[in-house]
Amino acid sequence: MTKVALRAAAMALALSSALALGQQAPARPDVWPRFRGSAALLGVADTALAKPLELAWTFEAKDGIVSSAAIAAGSVYVASRDGVLHALDLATGKSRWQYSTNSSVEESSPAVREGVVYVGDLDGVVHAVDAATGKARWTFKTEGEIHSSPNWSGDRVFIGSYDEHLYCLAAATGALLWKFRTAGPVHCTPAIDKDTVYVSGCDEHLRGIDTATGQERFALPLGGYTGASAAVTGGEAYVGTFGNEVFGFDLSRRTRRWTYEAGRTLPFYSSAAVAGDRLVLGGRDKIVHCLARSTGRALWTFPTRARVDSSPLIVGSRVFVGSNDGNLYELDLAAGKKVWEFTAGAPLSASPAAAGGALIIGSQNGTVYCLR
C-alpha cells in the first residue's frame, strides 16, 4: 500500500472512530439535544421526574406545534407551523428569542449541537441558528420539503428531504459533504449507530449508509412505506410501517428477526422507544403497543381515544406518550397500566422531551407545556 493510501485509510479510520464516540456518548440528565434524545433515536431520558408531574408553565405560539422540543443549556427549543423557531427559558417559559424560517416547520424537530440549533422547513431549507442569540449561522437548500429532523454525529449533520436524498452536511459551515439518493421521499429522521446512518423511507426499505463516505452498505425490504424513524441498538433496528407492521431486524446478519401485526389495519407512524427488553410505540389504531425486543410478541396494549402519532418517551419505569385525543398519558412500563394523565385539550402528535427534571410537549393549538 502506498503512503498516500495509508494516510487516507488512517484518516477514514480516525473519522469513523470520532463519529462512533460522538454518537455513543451517554446522555446527560440535563440535556435532550435532538428528536428521540440520542443519535440512535431510542426515546429514553436519564432525568428524574416528579411523581406526579404538575404543570409548571405554558407558552403560546401563534400556530400549531407538531414537532418535538430540544432542551439544552437551560433553554427549550421548539418550532411551530408558522415557521418560527422559539427559544424559551426552561425555568420560566419566557421567550429568549424567535427565529423565522420564512416557511412552515412541520415534523422537523430542532437539534442542538455545540451552541447551534438545526431545523428543517417545508421550503426544503436546513437552518443553523446560534443557540444563544437566535441569529442565523448558515442555511442549506435541498430540492424538496423537509419533514425529517436533523441528527448529528461528530462534526456532521444528517437530514432527509422529500427530494429523495439523505444529506450529510458540515456542522460548522453547512457545506455539502455527500448526499445519498433513495427511491422515495426521506420523511424519517436518520438514526446513527457507530459508523452507519440508517433511513427508513417511502421507498419501502431500511438502508444502512456509511457515515464517512455516503456509500450504501445494505438495503432491507420493509414491504410498505414508513413515516416512522428506526430505533437502533445492540446491532438491532426496530421500525413500524404504513403496512400495519412493526419489524425487528438483526443488522449484523441483515435479516428480519420478527414481524408484529396489530389487529387492525392502520399504520404505525410513531417511532419506537427502546429500553431493556421492551419497545413501545403508538399506532393509528388509537393504541399504545409494548413489544418484547427478542420476539416481537405483544406484552401489553393501552387504548386511547384517538390515533397515537406521538413517539413515546421512557423515563425509568415510566412511559409518557401523547395522543390526538388531547391527553398526555403516563403508563407503567412493566404492565401498561395508566398511572396519570394530563389533559391538554388539543391533539398531541408531538413527542415528549425530558431533561433537567422537566417534561416538555407542544400541542396542535400552539401551546407548549412544561410539567415538573
Any idea of the CATH topology?
Answer: Methylamine Dehydrogenase, Chain H
CATH architectural designation? 7 Propeller
Domain tally? 1
Shape: globular
Distance between the termini: 59 Å
Compute the CA-based radius of gyration: 19 Å
**Arrangement of strands in the largest sheet:** 1-32-31-30
SS element count, helices: 1
The H-level CATH homologous superfamily, spelled out, is: YVTN repeat-like/Quinoprotein amine dehydrogenase
CATH class: Mainly Beta
Which secondary-structure class do the elements indicate?
mainly beta
Low-pLDDT stretches: 1-26
Number of strands: 32
β-sheet strand percentage: 35-45%
| Percentage of residues in helical conformation | under 10%
Major sheet: 4 strands, antiparallel
**Average of the residue pLDDT scores:** 93
Task: Put the structure in a nutshell.
The protein has 372 residues and is mainly beta. It has 1 helix and 32 strands. It is globular, with a radius of gyration of 19 Å.
Structure notes:
The structure is a single chain. This protein has one domain: YVTN repeat-like/Quinoprotein amine dehydrogenase (Methylamine Dehydrogenase, Chain H), CATH 2.130.10.10. Helix content is 6%, strand content 43%. A four-stranded antiparallel β-sheet has the order 1-32-31-30, with no helix packed on it. Strands 2-3-4-5 form a four-stranded antiparallel β-sheet, with no helix packed on it. A four-stranded antiparallel β-sheet has the order 6-7-8-9, with no helix packed on it.
